[in-house]
Design goal:
Helix content: 25-40%
CATH class of the largest domain: Alpha Beta
CATH architecture of the largest domain: 2-Layer Sandwich
CATH topology of the largest domain: Nucleotidyltransferase, domain 5
Strand order of the largest sheet: 5-4-3-6-10
Number of domains: 3
Distance between the termini: 13 Å
Radius of gyration: 22 Å
Length: 392
């Protein structure tokens, strides 16, 4: 197997996460001489890891060649597991999804349901892959013990406790398996393929059924001492309030999460409030219908969405004031096109962020879509793959 020399490994890791790479840029950013970089790059190009792709524009002198990762060098499988189901992809090194599978839970999830759906989706992806992948990455909702590949707890699933996901998948598929929190995985996708590429310090706010935060410092994901940093949904947003599934009262999820929005709308309708929001066949209201009704001017839905967005805007501003990021990336439900929600978040954010931070921080919306978690899980495989190639 090809081994990466220390300088080659540095170049690979920088190139994977940088928006634009040339030999002179590598020399400057990695504090290496240009001849040293050129020798290392030549070996990486010969090995098929890097590709040369055109030239940068020059105002004079010799134009520098653009360096990129060779997308076809290696493949990986990425799986994202949340409270709705499993989304899986086969990804190349450039982040392109070569195959995609999805499994939605029609009823409440259980330990057996989650594991069987993971096996089913992975089987389908491996059958669709044009060559064996380097491994399987899993981004899963809830608390994770990353080093051992154990999912400690999955929200609202009582029989899911300390499940050795990595060991189970590795035994079944005979591949390396890496497990991380789903929001961390989505943040990794932004670092390597999304709005965070080339950005040293940013925050990623994800709203699914819960609310999570990815923290990137010096172009590296901050996981915290136990590996579970970023539980933004369980930061206190109000005194008292509704009991959260974590056991506390007043968590952000209980006033701004999708379940909180739907619950308030349904309670208001049950109390004879007027609304044009569409209900599902089972008589319940879905978050998508609430957002659509709010966009159409339904007063009840608009008021509920705006109030939730105000809580979100304040909390995001608090995080910006705390971490002083270059960018705050909004993903999940926040990237789904709800202009009413986004307008409110931006308005409140602008009014609460500190004056000396406001000119330097930018709110951006993720463009990675529903595969962000799976793509980030696939990227975790790439990260470990190149780490294993590094010469010891």
């Amino acid at each position: 197997m090809f081994s990466l020399l220390p300088r080659q490994y540095e170049i690979v890791e920088f190139t994977r996460r940088a928006a634009h790479v040339t030999r002179p840029l590598l020399a400057r950013r990695l504090s290496l001489s240009l001849p040293t970089v050129s020798v290392a790059v030549r070996g990486l190009v010969d090995a098929g890891i890097l590709s040369e792709d055109g030239y940068v524009e020059s105002s004079g002198g010799r134009r520098a060649r653009i360096l990129t990762m060779n997308p076809g060098f290696v493949r990986s499988v990425g799986l994202s597991v949340n409270m709705s189901g499993v989304c899986g992809i086969v990804a190349d090194l450039g982040g392109a999804p070569l195959a995609q599978e999805r499994f939605e839970w029609g009823t409440e999830a259980s330990r057996d349901t989650i594991l069987s759906s993971l096996y089913e989706v992975t089987d389908a992806l491996l059958a669709a892959a044009d060559e064996p992948p380097a491994g399987i990455g899993v981004g899963i909702t809830g608390l994770v013990q990353r080093e051992d590949g154990v999912s400690l707890r999955f929200p609202h699933v009582e029989d899911w406790k300390e499940v050795p996901v990595a060991a189970l998948l590795s035994e079944r598929f005979s591949l390396p398996v890496y497990v991380d929190n789903d929001v961390n995985a989505s943040t990794m996708a932004e670092i390597s393929f999304g709005k965070g590429r080339g950005v040293d310090d940013f925050l990623y706010v994800f709203v699914g059924k819960g609310i999570g935060l990815g923290i990137v410092v010096d172009a590296h994901l901050y996981r915290g001492f136990s590996g579970n940093a970023g539980e933004l949904g369980h930061v206190s947003a109000t005194d008292g309030g509704v009991l959260c599934h974590c056991g506390n009262y007043g968590c952000l999820e209980t006033v701004a999460g999708p379940e909180a929005i739907v619950r308030e709308v349904q309670q208001a309708i049950a109390g004879a409030a007027l609304s044009t929001v569409e209900t599902a066949e089972d008589g319940t209201v879905r978050i998508g219908a609430v957002l659509q009704a709010a966009e159409a001017g339904d007063r009840l839905c608009e008021n509920v969405v705006v109030r939730a967005a105000e809580h979100m805007g304040r909390m995001i501003a608090n995080m910006a004031n705390l971490f002083d990021p270059q960018v705050v990336i909004l993903g999940g439900l926040l990237s789904g096109g709800s202009s009413r929600m986004m307008e409110t978040i931006r308005r409140v954010f602008d009014s609460r962020v500190l004056p000396h931070i406001a000119p330097t921080v930018e709110l951006q919306v993720s463009e990675l879509g529903e595969v962000s978690g799976a793509l980030g899980a696939a990227d975790v495989v790439f990260e470990n793959y190149f780490e294993d190639l590094r010469a010891r």
